[in-house]
Amino acid sequence: MIEYISTRGGVAPQSFTDVLLSGTAEDGGLFIPDEWPEINLDFLQRMAGMPYAHVAMEVLKPFIGNAIPQGDLFRILEQTYSIENFDHAAVAPLVQVGPNAWILELFHGPTLSFKDYALQLLGRLFDYELQKQGKRVTIVGATSGDTGSAAIHACKDCKNIDIFILHPEGRTSDIQRKQMTTVEADNVHNIAVQGTFDDCQAIVKTLFSDRGLREELHLSAINSINWARIMAQTVYYASTVLTLGGTARSVSFSVPTGNFGNVYAGWCARTMGLPIEDLIVSTNRNDILHRFFGSGKMQVGSVEPSISPSMDIQVSSNFERYLCDLCERDHGAVVKLMDSFTKNKAFSLSGELTHKAQKTFRSYRCDDAQTLETIKMAYDYTGMLIDPHTAVALYGAMDRIEDRPDTPTVVMACAHASKFPEAVEQATGKKPVVPAQLDNVLSKPEFFTPLANDADKIKDFIRQNAKQ
To answer: What 8-state DSSP symbol labels residue 259?
Structure first.
């Protein structure tokens, strides 16, 4: 049975339930499986055409083991991926935009973001386990835009959860912010931090490194630093492969990338045996990952605001998970690299490891002007309105689409165009139609607390407002 270890090797192996409720390891690392399960491709192939929840069951049950009885798990999956939560029968539908080019629409959940695909499941898993154990947790998370609203909508009705979401003040779109701050629930707390997303993320890590606070408030994470988030995101890679000809045919994916969680889920799916050829890391002007894959050096720069704000990140926290396997699970090496990153804002890999990473990932950088051009190009050629993050992924996929006409390339559409109407209208002259989920959001009253970029002040606020 799979257990979970820290990327830094400083804690005993944990069960799935422990990892679900804690989120991060006490040694500062992130949890990964102690071994990678192999997907039974023959069995998975026979699931082609089956509902999304059935595919999810097959992909996820090795990671969960006997922590949740299979009947209960399947019931949770059916509830999660029901038509009441996702407004398309396929849950994650594909739209063909060229002979070998496809867009994977990951915006059919309640907040019109790909984050719903994992967080709607995570909220139910939390609720199930907390009720079973008679416990309460305090969830603390940072968001660059979409995670916050998806997490809040997943947890707002959970009786055993208090949720505190930190977002960078003035650095999300109006709709992204209001999807978080217009939710009126006693257990929901929005904090507008006077800083960047990286500042928010650093504060969350500081809080989780405070052992006394973790125990006092039963802290848990809902960001993609929680393994269950990554696990859930592997499912739509599997469902896409099945739709595009089954497990005997390779597929490439272009993923708009900031925190490295979504594209890392693709790497996990590939490691489990899915026929994934290329994983394309598509970045905006905040291009730390593109620079890394070109040079082997991870070096923090300044966070620059862009029209694709969910990717305005310079510290890609999930990269540590990939780094651990890249270093062949040499935990000491990971600790040294991450210590260097903390102290010097940089680390460098050997030429051998850099070459190994380059064989797995391609990367591209797309600035704001190129993003607008790509939105316009997509509209002119297909009539589709795509959001800026999807445009970054499409830009990154163009070379691959031209080079390999025999292999499908899938562009991940991680948000609905209506969440970024200004950029879409600037590029095309067209306003995206606002779906029912966003009706009245812009006119509702907001509830949030502005706080300084100060971990102690935010810690005090959480202590005062958590119901532990």
So the answer is: S
Class of domain 94-112+227-428: alpha beta
User: Which amino acid is residue 228, in one-letter code?
Assistant: A
CB 228 within 8 Å of CB 76? no
115 catalytic residue (yes or no): yes
**Active-site residue, from 115, 178, 205, 419:** 115
pTM above 0.70, yes or no: yes
In the chain, domain spans: 94-112+227-428
CA 453: distance to chain centroid?
24
* Of 458, 460, 437, 451, nearest in space to 182 by CA: 437
Q: How far apart are alpha carbons 173 and 312 in whole angstroms? A: 12
What lies within 8 Å, CB to CB, of 283 at 6+ separation is 256, 257, 258, 289, 290, 311, 363, 364, 365, 366, 392
pLDDT tens-place string over residues 315-374: 898 999 999 999 999 999 999 999 999 999 999 999 999 999 999 999 999 999 999 999
Cα(358)–Cα(342) distance, integer angstroms? 24
128: helix, strand or coil: helix
C-beta separation of 281 from 364 below 8 A: yes
